[in-house]
Amino acid sequence: MPSEAEAVAALRENGFAGPIALAIVTGTGLGALVEAIEGRISLDYSEIPGFPRPGVSGHGGRLHRGTLSGRPVLVLEGRAHAYERGEPAAMRMPLAAVAALGAKRVLLTNAAGSLMPKAGPGSLVVLTDHINLSGLNPLIGEASEARFVPMTNAYAPRLRAALRAAAEMEGLFLHEGVYAWFSGPSFETPAEVRMAGRLGADLVGMSTVPETILARFLGLEVAAVSAVTNFAAGVSGGDPHHAETRAVAARAGSDLARLAAAFAARLPET
């Protein structure tokens, strides 16, 4: 397994060094954000030692560097999911490399199913918290004391405030909600969705939570936004499938790109 140092060295050699105001991870069908990056340079994950190869359609598998609203950013176009190889820490190397290159904060995006009747397909939801229903954790096996990561404010309040201000500036309505992580790859059953709702979930999905845990372990501030692609199973007639997820995410992608650009412009300096 290639080391973090090898990955970082390869990225520096390819022009990815320098200040980074924000790292962004894009979810299924949300790669349109890449088009908003100015002065973009790109590298396939396959060319970066230790980076995973995403195995889900709608995840490009490329790392980009450039500027967004004049701020230097790194965009990880696509992710590897825990369900692809049974590895909840699948995104550890990319996030560790991003942190080693100097990023201090990350915006995670995903496609999710909604339990909220008022937040239907096409809605954007900023995450306030999460529930891990997968039985997995990306830090299992980590030997250092740093594995005991506090998660009280996993989604940084000041970054959530910046996202709300960015949405208002762009005329976008931004819902708030709690995201429940199921391992996938099968979609949730109506009974599982009812259970998640009773536990306090507003959204369900198959990603983001392990990345949030890893990012906090690595010292990164985290913000996260879900693009609602469907109602969850049994909610308002919801019967999700992957083709629907990709199609609706692509339509929501332009709103998410606007939100991310306005968010980058309003980032705290420190």
UniProtKB/TrEMBL annotation:
List, alphabetically, the GO terms of the cellular component aspect: cytoplasm
What processes does the entry annotate via GO biological process terms?
Answer: nucleoside metabolic process
Which CDD domains does the record cross-reference, listed alphabetically? PNP-EcPNPII_like
Gene3D superfamilies, per database record: Nucleoside phosphorylase domain
Q: What is its EC number?
A: 2.4.2.1
Give, as in the UniProt entry, the pathway in which the protein acts.
Purine metabolism; purine nucleoside salvage
Which molecular function GO terms apply here? purine-nucleoside phosphorylase activity
> What residues form the membrane-spanning segments?
none
Domain Nucleoside phosphorylase span(s) in chain numbering:
22-264
Instruction: Give the main EC class.
Output: transferase
- What task does this protein carry out? The purine nucleoside phosphorylases catalyze the phosphorolytic breakdown of the N-glycosidic bond in the beta-(deoxy)ribonucleoside molecules, with the formation of the corresponding free purine bases and pentose-1-phosphate.
- Family designation: Belongs to the PNP/MTAP phosphorylase family.
Q: What quaternary structure, including any partners, is listed in this protein's UniProt entry? A: Homotrimer.
Q: What is this protein called?
A: Purine nucleoside phosphorylase
Native species: Methylorubrum rhodinum
Recite the lineage of the species: Bacteria, Pseudomonadati, Pseudomonadota, Alphaproteobacteria, Hyphomicrobiales
